[in-house]
Amino acid sequence: MKRLHNMRFRTFVQVNFLLLFFSWCSLASAQQITSAARSLTYGFVSPNTREGLKLDDAIRGLHSAEEGTLIRRARSLGCVARSKVETYKAVGSWSDGAEHSVLLRSTTDTPTVRYIVSVLGRNNQQKAALYFHSNSAGSANIYILRLQRGRTMRSLASLLDQAGIEFRTLVPTKASVLVYIVDLKREMRTKVLAAATKLKAHVTSRRGTAEFIGDDSSRDKAKEIFENEIRNYESQNSALITKCRVRSSSVQP
């Protein structure tokens, strides 16, 4: 009888140990998923609605009232991101044009960064806004070139054109200029490294997911897409939106 009691006691202990172990594994797995969902993100949004701007126009636009308004609005969305939204004056530059922009940097998840750039894109009447969310399984890359010596944005844009890098974001700093390149299909590595060598720049890269939200052919169509993103996010995160007192549908610049 005593032996039977001991066997039952050991079985009880083993079963409870296994239950505790599996509960701990489930909790650890959930924590890993949560941690993976929130990671370093970048957003690229412009307040500009004029066509045909050149690099000099975009540089002047960095000191415009609309640039300042976009920066303040982006920072105010930190509550939704559950992380500080850092903002940097930037120039979106391509082979035949440019526009003043704002680079956003935060730690959040993909739906939230999509919401943030959609709110800013819609409120600034943009055709499209771009985001990048760090993710080791993503199909895109972001490259950041840090130049070792001072160089003007004009000379830098010319050298990037020569290197075959048509689309880039230039962020001026006190010492030099940083270059951000979002490679949507992970096919520009060779060109980026060649440009970095020529510029004597240090390169860092991250893998992740990236997408343009909007419609490059029409501001009206882009607005519909932005508003759809906004509605979907706010319906699924009503408690967060209420807590942060965000009323994006009525907030206009």
Task: Give an account of the 3D structure.
The chain folds into two domains: 1-37; 39-250, no CATH class. It has nine helices and eight strands. It has helices spanning 2-37, 55-61, 65-75, 78-81, 110-123, 153-162, 189-199, 219-236, 238-244; strands at 39-45, 86-94, 97-108, 128-134, 140-147, 167-172, 177-183, 201-214. It has an eight-stranded antiparallel β-barrel with strand order 1-3-2-6-7-5-8-4, surrounded by seven helices. Helix 5 crosses helix 8. The protein is globular and about 50 Å long.
Keyword list:
single chain, 253 residues, alpha+beta, eight-stranded antiparallel beta barrel, 9 helices, 28% strand, globular
Topology (elements, then pairings):
Blueprint: H1 2-37, E1 39-45, H2 55-61, H3 65-75, H4 78-81, E2 86-94, E3 97-108, H5 110-123, E4 128-134, E5 140-147, H6 153-162, E6 167-172, E7 177-183, H7 189-199, E8 201-214, H8 219-236, H9 238-244
Antiparallel strand pairs: 1-3, 1-4, 2-3, 2-6, 4-8, 5-7, 5-8, 6-7
